[in-house]
UniProtKB/TrEMBL annotation:
Pfam family, one: Exo_endo_phos_2
Single GO MF annotation: catalytic activity
GO CC list: extracellular matrix
Keywords: Coiled coil
Location of the Endonuclease/exonuclease/phosphatase domain: 174-275
The organism's taxonomic lineage, starting at the top: Eukaryota, Metazoa, Ecdysozoa, Arthropoda, Hexapoda
Name of protein: Endonuclease/exonuclease/phosphatase domain-containing protein
Coiled coil: 46-108
Length: 413
């Protein structure tokens, strides 16, 4: 066995690198690549992030502008909304005040119309003379007196009206009665007995009021003005119907209330009596007591002749002739026999009246359907009211009713 011993060389070979040196170079290369990639990625990411942030910043700026715009619009809308709310509140307050004013004027108008109609009596054929006394004329034609001795313990009011027709006097008794519910037989019988005593002193009677006997049904034929009772099978019904039959009274009111009943009765022994619904209301309509208008026709009434009125037309007077005539009058001789100033004034009025009669033409005034005490403004207001009333009846428009009320106020004033 041959063994050869050689000394190990300490110098590295130039041709073949060692594995350790080769491994170190790869690591370095990796580090270099890693560093380059990191730098490149960092730069690219920075640029990308910067660009994205710039875009986001731009979008945020646009969003901020939009938000500010919407905020301005909202504030403007809120301001206008507050103004509108203030205007609406003001309109509500004004509407409430106007409604209160309208209600107050309606009540005042109703009271004024009632007050006006209390003294508004129109009689056709009266002498149209300024010196006539209307009160005495009415007392001559129709004299009314309250009869307290006819009144019972109930709520009734009696009037005695004396009508003078063709030199003959006719007495009519008018009664207004209210019997509160529930109606008791004793109260009803007390009133009916009192009416029996009154009928012995008058020719005709008209009794109207709230009897509160709604259980009685009233029906009639078209050719009859009065109605016949039915469904009165109790003591109250029998008492009223027997009383009407004994005294020859009839019931004339056929207008039902909101409950399809008749509480207000119109009893009379006069055949020419009609009950209708009025076109103009004196007071607020009550659903349980509808307003009614009672008309009594009086036949064979002789109308008084109307006097023709004449006047002077000073617009067509001959003032030149008047001036010449007045200059030619010897006033010294005219006033010579006058003792004092009053006599001279009377003589002057006589001379002046003769001049007017001589040089001022006369004209006959047109006949009017209105009394002589109606002024031109009152006639114009009544004409305007009638025009609106016709429109209201034709179209039934509540807007037309407002100027109708104004015309009524104007007519009153």
């Amino acid at each position: 066995m041959n063994v050869t011993l050689r000394k190990k060389s300490t110098q590295p070979s130039l041709s073949t690198p060692s594995i350790e040196n080769n491994f170190l170079n790869e690591n370095k290369l990796r580090d270099i690549i890693k560093e380059e990639l990191a730098a490149a990625l960092k730069s690219s990411f920075k640029e990308l992030l910067t660009e994205q942030l710039r875009n986001i910043q731009g979008e945020l700026s646009e969003f901020k502008s939009s938000f500010e715009f919407f905020n301005e619009q909202f504030e403007d809308f809120k301001k206008r909304s507050d103004e509108k709310d203030a205007v609406i509140d003001q309109l509500r307050n004004d509407n409430a005040k106007l409604q209160h004013t309208v209600n107050d004027l309606t009540i005042r108008l109703c009271n004024a119309e009632q007050y006006m109609r209390e003294s508004n009596v129109e009689i056709s054929g009266l002498p149209e003379d300024k010196s006539e006394d209307l009160v005495k004329t009415l007392q001559t034609i129709a004299k009314s007196t309250r009869m307290k001795n006819w009144e019972s313990d109930l709520e009734d009011l009696w009037l005695s009206v004396e009508l003078t027709i063709n030199n003959s006097t006719k007495k009519i008794a008018l009664c207004v009665i209210y019997i509160p519910p529930p109606v008791k037989l004793d109260s009803l019988q007390c009133f009916l007995d009192n009416v029996n005593n009154v009928l012995n002193n008058v020719d005709d009677v008209v009794i109207l009021g709230d009897f509160n006997l709604g259980f009685i049904d009233w029906s009639g034929r078209s050719d009859d003005l009065h109605l016949s009772p039915s469904n009165y099978e109790n003591s109250l019904g029998y008492s009223l119907v027997d009383f009407m039959s004994i005294n020859g009274l009839h019931q004339f009111n056929s207008h039902l209330n909101a409950d399809n009943r008749i509480l207000d009765l119109v009893l009379s022994n006069m055949s020419d009596l009609t009950v209708t619904k009025p076109d103009d209301l004196l007071s607020k309509l009550d659903a349980h007591h509808p307003n009614i208008l009672i008309s009594i026709s009086i036949p064979n009434v002789k109308q008084l002749e109307t006097k023709c009125r004449s006047g002077y037309n000073f617009y067509k007077a001959d003032y030149k002739q008047i001036k010449t005539h007045l200059k030619n009058i010897n006033w010294y001789d005219t006033f010579r026999e006058c003792i004092n100033a009053n006599d001279r004034l009377n003589v002057f009025y006589v001379m002046l009246q003769s001049v007017i009669e001589s040089f001022v033409p006369k004209y006959t005034k047109k006949k009017s359907k209105y009394p002589p005490w109606y002024s031109d403004s009152l006639i114009a207001a009544l004409t305007e009211k009638e025009k609106f009333r016709q429109k209201y009846r034709k179209y039934n428009n509540p807007v037309i009713n407002l100027p109708l009320s104004y015309c009524a106020v104007a007519a009153i004033l």
